[in-house]
Amino acid sequence: MEEKKNMINGGDVLVKCLLQENVRYMFGIPGGQFLKMYDAVYRWGREKGINTVLFRHEQAAAHAADAYARVTNTPGVCFGTVGPGATHLVPGVGAAWADNIPVIAIVPQVNSKFEDSFTLQGGLDQLTMFKPITKYQKSIREIEKIPDAVHKVFREATSGRPRPVLLEIYEDAFLAEIEEDKIPIISSDRYRAIAKPAIDNELIKKSLDLLLNAEKPLIISGGGVARAEAWNELQEFAEYLQIPVITSISGVGTISNKSKCSVGVTLGSIATSASQVDVILALGCKFSFTMAHGAEPFWKDSQKLIQVDIDPSIIGRNKPIELGIVGDCKLFLKQILEEVKKTQKIEKREWLEHQIELKQRRDSTYIKKGSKDKIPIFPQRMIKDVLEFIDEDTILIVDGGDIQAFAYEQIDIYKQRKPLSTLSAIGMGHLGTSVGYGIGAKLAKPDKQVVSISGDGSFMINIQDLETAARLGLKNLIFCVGNNSCWGMIKSGQRYTVKKRYIDVDLPGFDYGKCAEGFGCYGEQVTDPNEIKPALERAKNSNKPAVIDVKIQFATPEITKLMSSIGAM
Questions:
Q1: What is the pTM of this model?
Q2: Which domains does the chain carry?
Q3: DSSP for 32-74?
């Protein structure tokens, strides 16, 4: 008698492949073409360690996958059903694309027999729609091609410059069946390179020579240092030569604020003396708007720039280079550390002391503003109290326009920021990440406190997924909303560029604390600055996701004024 074959469907195959990639969560909303995938998770997937997380909007689900990837340094997975579900993913995937985050977006496609037949949700060219915001797109119709397709999207998402990818699977592949032992699922180390290529030692020597002969060098640590997990090497190198370090937004936490070499975050930290720098070592950092595009009047074209990046297309963008190095930041720092220890130690102590003095002056100004008891509450006071309240290893989300600028003015003053623990959708300038990021980060690191700082405008964009946070029973997840009843950054623009002709920037009064209670969260509103920390403590102890609505006054951050004055924002 012939032995009965063990047959599995396309949903089983996809889940098996994702488990092989150590995927624990898939963030999204169900759709008809995904029924086989969901059934595989229900029948056996949960026991093996993978689960779906139901959201109320796919955009927030994509943000959750993005946050999961940022804090774990592994790909996050999101999905949306064919047509409208896929279109809803676009904003979240786009935000991840702009910040070089490896997100795997999975969407189904209608059954081939319904192509060009005006079927429900059909007729959308999803690959073309996602092409501008994904590094790679793959579409398959046959069940036997699922494993290879999963391998390809994970390889593309994680190799070189990490970015989102799209996997589209026709319903045909989900419905088909195949013998289980004929599915070629292999481990990641057998289909993609894990080790990074070494950097030519002549480039290492040239880089070191430029830095040793500089009078006023500066290191900029970007997201490439974070993704390469090169923070220990960075700090050791900087401290060995006593070179000041600033970080980009994506690089926050890559050098401890307890290090003497740490002099701040982004251009706002060194704006008064950036033009004095003679040699810059930019590690995994774009010269974007947060760095004033590397241009005059802050920077000088005469500065010698050593730029290290895993992506050759970044090197020399916006600012001319003296030396461009394509490579992994961790390997570069390991190699240059090894080389510098062979040479005579030449410290840049005097220049570093000057930068430390400037930082101390800046910090004292921010602390002074943040200590005021005025009502309505100064936004600086809200930021200061939140940053003083949070745990040392808190995952901090910063979402919004001007409130984001206020946050980064003080972010390295009070508590140490750990690597991979500060989340902002900075590249796209995207708003509305708070709730999705909060859920994704909390599921990735359930033992960590997760705190979000946002403006009222940005918080409202994905407020519906407070219900998701409550349903999941997430604790010590706190959303602190700076409520100034306006779109602050745009109002600031109208204030300084069109003589206060305000239009479509003022919002009606709204109590986000009461709204949160309606979703099953803890919530309260704060109007007295001395009640901010007690409210945060109550939120922490509520055993629920919590929203603290802080009524702040409309104000414009100094960096916003500065950048607006030169047309850099």
A1: 0.95
A2: 7-190 (3.40.50.970), 201-356 (3.40.50.1220), 371-565 (3.40.50.970)
A3: GGGHHHHHHIIIIIHHHT-EEEE-SSHHHHHHHHHHHHHHHSS
